[in-house]
From TrEMBL:
Ranges annotated as biased composition (Low complexity): 108-120
GO cellular component: membrane
Subcellular location: Membrane
Pfam families recorded: ST7
Protein name: Protein ST7 homolog
Predominant subcellular localization, coarse grouping: membrane
Residues covered by region (Disordered): 106-134
Keyword Thylakoid applies: no
InterPro entries xref list: ST7 (IPR007311), TPR-like_helical_dom_sf (IPR011990)
Keywords on record: Membrane, Transmembrane, Transmembrane helix
Protein transport as UniProt keyword: no
Organism lineage string: Eukaryota, Metazoa, Ecdysozoa, Arthropoda, Hexapoda
Regions of compositional bias (Polar residues) in chain numbering: 121-132
Length: 498
């Protein structure tokens, strides 16, 4: 409870300084100018100058010590904030709150921006505007009400059906029914766009929007078929979608949905064919591609590890080495996945968005693919024995990778925003506090405290210093007395002459 109040107070302070600092500055300047006579500002400045000229060196020692104390406290707070959130508090406040004041930014909160562009048809203008507002609503009920209002204005509003299917439908069957209505509306809108809209300018934007909406609906229908157990139908729909060459395909990752459906059918040969097509760099890498490739290679040798106690008791064959290398490759790409596959960390429901190579991607992958790893006997045992060996080849993952680019250092903060607050975000590599930071912070604080106490209580601190020096010298005096008793006097005299 105390931490919640402190966080609210910190947020309030940040907000106040972000938006009210200019008003406060002008108000202070006006008050000082208006009260320049009663406050006798000129006379006070002259007196301050005389006071500063009469200060003793002790004052400057105390001032230096106090500034060191404040700097040390700031350093400790920055270190604590960095350990907890993985970024600098000052930098975050500067970028998130002061940055918008320095330059305009165009932010669009609509996560379906490509599917909700500005329509040029007068019959669709009102429904489009209503849906643009609905997508931005934070309240789910307001979004649903906006979609229903858009359908009243335009029964062929495909995006309204999409929103209702995703947020208002209670079952997958209801969602599939709404998506089929959305597909009819999207096909009708696409035909109108192809026939009536001129090429170039806004016409191309509307046509591209309608194509993207139709592709998105088809993918969602294929996902509904997969969830309802119609695997062959889902695979056919996913295969048809993979033939599209639209730019949105690089965002939807339909090939990953196809791989998951084929794994559910245990069609491993077809999965290998899909991997051969997409795991060559033609599409962005992902945990699904890397770990599925590892699973297929592990499947060929995993039965041998169901009874054997370890890998070091015999030499490994070429296929076993390939399987281990595939595991190392997958772990290097996303090191968060093995802990979820081995059930060493609790799972949560997959988020709406994910970050490549981050904890959110690991959660999404394991949520849908854990059953496929369990279906292959011995796969998880082999993974448990070999996945930690990856880190021997990448001792500094943030600086240099082995098969991929260095691991990005900025995944923790986005994952904290994407995943639920109760979920403990996995961090890689685990940050250890550098000794230099701790030593510097402690030394700075201790020195500032000693300087301040010496300035305020010089007599008492002198007594304390003498006492501490006396205590520290006791072991030395004791050792010297023992040496005098053990060694002959002539030997000590020779050492003193040297």
């Amino acid at each position: 409870m105390i931490l919640i109040h402190l966080r609210k107070f910190k947020n309030w302070v940040v907000w106040s300084w972000t938006y009210l600092w200019a008003f406060w500055f002008l108000l202070v300047v006006f008050v000082l100018y208006y009260l320049r006579g009663p406050l006798k500002i000129s006379e006070n400045i002259g007196m301050a100058t005389m006071f500063l000229s009469t200060l003793t060196p002790k004052f400057y020692v105390a001032l230096t010590g106090t500034s060191s104390l404040i700097s040390g406290l700031i350093l400790i707070f920055e270190w604590w904030y960095y350990r907890k959130y993985g970024t600098s508090f000052i930098e975050q406040v500067s970028l998130n709150h002061l940055g918008p004041l320095l330059g305009p930014q165009d932010y669009n909160g609509n996560t379906n921006g490509e599917a909700n562009g500005n329509a040029t048809s007068p019959s669709q203008t009102q429904s489009t505007q209503v849906m643009q507002t609905a997508w931005r609503e934070r309240n789910p009920q307001e979004r649903v009400n906006g979609a229903k209002a858009a359908l009243e204005k335009n029964p062929d509003c495909a995006t309204a059906y999409i929103l209702l299917a995703e947020e208002d439908a209670c079952t997958i069957v209801e969602s599939e029914k709404l998506l089929k209505q959305a597909m009819k509306a999207a096909e009708s809108n696409l035909r109108k766009s192809q026939l009536s809209q001129p090429h170039g300018g806004n016409g191309d934007n509307v046509l591209r929007r309608d194509i993207n909406v139709l592709i998105y609906i088809k993918r969602r229908l294929a996902m509904c078929a997969r969830k309802l157990g119609r695997l062959k139908e889902a695979v056919k729909m996913f295969r048809d979608l993979t033939k599209e060459v639209q730019p949105i395909m690089s965002v939807l990752h339909v090939h990953e949905n196809l791989i998951e459906a084929l794994l559910e059918m245990q069609a491993y040969a077809d999965v290998q064919a899909v991997l051969a097509k997409y795991d060559d760099g033609s599409v962005p890498r992902s945990a699904a591609l890397c770990y599925t490739s590892a699973l297929l290679k592990v499947r060929q040798v995993s039965e041998k590890f169901m009874t054997e106690s370890g890998l070091i008791k015999r030499s490994l064959s070429a296929s076993e080495m390939n399987a281990i290398e595939a595991i190392h490759r997958a772990v290097e790409y996303n090191p968060h996945v093995p802990k979820y596959l081995l059930e060493l960390k609790p799972m949560v429901f997959p988020p709406e968005h994910l970050l490549k190579r981050g904890d959110s991607e690991a959660v999404c992958y394991v949520f849908f693919h854990l059953q496929h790893w369990k279906r292959v006997d011995g796969a998880l045992q082999l993974l448990a024995c070999t996945w930690e060996g990856t880190f021997a080849s990448i001792p500094r993952p943030l600086e240099k990778g082995n098969l991929f680019f260095p691991y990005p250092p900025c995944t923790e903060c986005p994952d904290r925003e994407i995943l639920p607050a109760h979920h403990e975000v996995s961090v890689f590599p685990e940050r250890e506090t550098p000794f230099f930071i701790m030593f510097t912070a402690g030394l700075c604080t201790f020195t500032a405290l000693i300087a301040f106490l010496t300035h305020q209580y010089p007599d008492q601190m002198a007594i304390v210093a003498k006492t501490v020096v006396g205590w520290m010298s006791l072991p030395v005096i004791y050792i010297m007395d023992k040496l005098e008793n053990l060694l002959p006097a002539s030997f000590l005299q020779i050492l003193s002459r040297v």
